[in-house]
């Protein structure tokens, strides 16, 4: 008869988490895609693998980042934004940003000409204020199709033929109209200025389920849990638990983009039951998980 383990035998430890090695790349020759009055919207296309990081950079023009497949995260000085395929991120001129591929991503970038002192997708002056900050926008099927059709050739090649340029202008006008119509959604996570707290927050963003308690998260910061809790209230105006819930919601959006069912999403995010996860979502955003994640 085969040997049987003793009733009190210690169970085998869980397999170690896979170690993912990030790769860092520079912004892809933005000087070859400069928008202008003649070509107010320019498009770039880049396919990048998971854990690729585009280093921080900025532009004197506005930008929209769209991943037609895969989820990306954009980090700006004051926060981080999760962008699944059903969303896009508007970045105003001059805002430094870095891009992380949460999954393999088909990254489409649009650059927008902004006349001096103006900001937005060709909106009236009275409507510019919301566009002077980063905004996560819903992406309609039409907008996604228009982005795919935009020419993405750089300026170091042959100039666009008159017919192609004429078509690009029509596509650009439709893209601007769709952006003006797009609903804004909250998928951002605020980030602090304090270096110790910033390091902790970025660690949570990378893997929000790695620890459960603030004491565990604070261990690598060189600060006590009490100090970290005070910094959260001072810099972000909330508790660590409240902030981490926003990160959990952002990760849930990432998982929902992969068509995971609610019970799998809840389990992967460390909840003992789908009902516990549902209660957190309702408490935080006032919607049922199906409503909050259904369009991701």
Characterization of this structure:
With 296 residues, the chain is of the alpha+beta class. It folds into 2 domains: 23-185, Jelly Rolls; 193-293, Homeodomain-like (Arc Repressor Mutant, subunit A, Orthogonal Bundle), CATH 1.10.10. It is built from 9 helices and 12 strands. It has helices at residues 141-149, 162-181, 195-206, 214-218, 225-236, 240-257, 262-268, 274-285, 289-293, and strands at residues 23-25, 41-48, 52-57, 62-67, 72-76, 79-83, 87-91, 97-101, 105-112, 135-138, 184-185, 188-190. It has a 6-stranded mixed sheet with strand order 1-3-8-5-6-12. Strands 2-9-4-7-10-11 form a 6-stranded antiparallel sheet, with helices on one face. α1 runs antiparallel to α2 and α7 packs across α8 (274-285). Residues 4-14 have low confidence and may be disordered.
Please outline what is shown here:
This protein is an alpha+beta fold.
What tags apply to this protein structure?
296 residues; 9 helices; Jelly Rolls; 6-stranded antiparallel sheet; 2 domains; 34% helix; Arc Repressor Mutant, subunit A; globular; alpha+beta; 6-stranded mixed sheet
SS class: alpha+beta
Percent of residues in β-strands: 15-25%
| Whole-number count of domains | 2
Helices, by number, come to 9
| Uncertain stretches of 5 or more adjacent residues | 4-14
CATH fold field value of the largest domain = Jelly Rolls
Distance between the termini: 53 Å
Rg computed from alpha carbons, rounded to a whole number of angstroms: 22 Å
Name the CATH superfamily classification of the largest domain: Jelly Rolls
């Amino acid at each position: 008869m085969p040997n049987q383990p003793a009733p009190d035998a210690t169970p085998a430890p869980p397999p170690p988490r896979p170690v993912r090695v990030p790769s860092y790349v520079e912004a892809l020759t933005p000087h070859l895609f400069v928008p202008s009055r003649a070509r107010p919207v320019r498009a770039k296309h880049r396919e990048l693998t998971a854990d690729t990081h585009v280093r921080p950079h900025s532009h004197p023009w506005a930008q929209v980042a769209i991943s037609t497949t895969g989820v990306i995260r954009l980090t700006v000085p004051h926060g981080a934004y999760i962008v699944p395929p059903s969303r896009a991120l508007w970045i105003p001129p001059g805002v430094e940003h870095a891009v992380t591929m949460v999954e393999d991503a088909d990254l489409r970038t649009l650059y927008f000409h902004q006349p001096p002192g103006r900001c937005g997708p060709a909106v009236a002056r009275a409507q510019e204020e919301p566009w002077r900050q980063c905004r996560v926008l819903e992406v309609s099927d039409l907008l996604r199709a228009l982005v795919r059709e935009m020419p993405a050739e750089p300026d170091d090649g042959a100039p666009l033929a008159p017919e192609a340029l004429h078509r690009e202008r029509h596509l650009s006008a439709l893209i601007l109209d769709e952006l003006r119509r797009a609903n804004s959604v909250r998928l951002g996570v605020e980030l602090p200025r304090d270096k110790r707290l910033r390091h902790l927050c970025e660690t949570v963003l990378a893997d929000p389920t790695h620890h459960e308690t603030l004491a565990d998260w604070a261990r690598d910061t060189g600060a006590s849990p009490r100090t970290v809790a005070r910094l959260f209230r001072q810099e972000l105006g909330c508790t660590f638990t409240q902030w981490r819930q926003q990160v959990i919601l952002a990760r849930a959006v990432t998982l929902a983009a992969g068509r995971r069912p609610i019970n799998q999403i809840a389990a992967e995010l460390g909840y003992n039951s789908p009902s516990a996860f549902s209660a957190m979502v309702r408490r935080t955003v006032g919607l049922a998980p199906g409503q909050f994640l259904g369009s991701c």
